[in-house]
Design goal:
Blueprint lengths: L14 E2 L1 H6 E11 L3 H8 L3 E2 L4 E5 L2 E5 L2 E2 L16 E4 L2 H14 L2 E10 L3 E11 L2 H26 L1
Keywords: Cytoplasm, RNA-binding
Family: Belongs to the SmpB family.
InterPro entries: SmpB (IPR023620), SsrA-bd_prot (IPR000037), SsrA-bd_prot_CS (IPR020081)
Length: about 160
């Protein structure tokens, strides 16, 4: 008899940037709040957003998330938000100074890796300090993942034979 899947707690699944891990060597992660309008929150809850090219910039001591696309809410009316705009991130002054120092000294990039709702209330963005990968690094990662997949297939075939 097939097992029934348990219902989830109602919290929306996080929006994940799969390209970030492929294009960057992710070093450290930090969680930040994000300033959104009401219609943006509703669209995010419906997972109507694209995080693929999103990155963060530090301007005048504040952190902004650029290239994060949230589709306008279908029932938003005249109060709807623009699709792409810089969105302010909420971080401590110490955290911002630390990130700014690392970006300037080491040549790192702030990449958005995940957007989710914490405690089903607050919209949060997971940022990662990343170092851009070269083409040969990407090829090496693809070879490793292919090898892992082949091993998993062989193990599965051996167990079922």
């Amino acid at each position: 008899m097939a097992k029934k899947k348990e219902k989830d707690s109602g919290a929306p699944q996080p929006l994940v940037n799969k390209k970030a891990k492929f294009n960057f060597e992710l070093i450290s992660f930090i969680e930040a709040g994000i300033v959104l309008s009401g219609s943006e929150v509703k669209s995010l809850r419906e997972k109507k957003a694209n995080l693929t090219d999103a990155f963060a910039k530090i301007k005048n001591g504040e952190v902004y998330l650029d290239s994060f696309s949230i589709t306008p809410y279908k029932n938003g009316g005249y109060t709807n938000h623009p699709d792409i705009r810089p969105r302010k991130l909420l971080l401590n002054r110490k955290e911002i100074d630390k990130l700014d120092k690392q970006i300037k000294e080491k040549g790192l990039v702030l990449v958005a890796t995940k957007v989710y709702f914490k405690d089903n209330r607050w919209a949060k963005v997971e940022l990662a300090l990343g170092k851009p990968k070269k083409l040969f690094d990407k090829r090496e990662d693809m070879k490793k993942s292919d090898a892992k997949l082949e091993i998993a297939r062989a193990m599965k075939a051996k167990n079922y034979s």
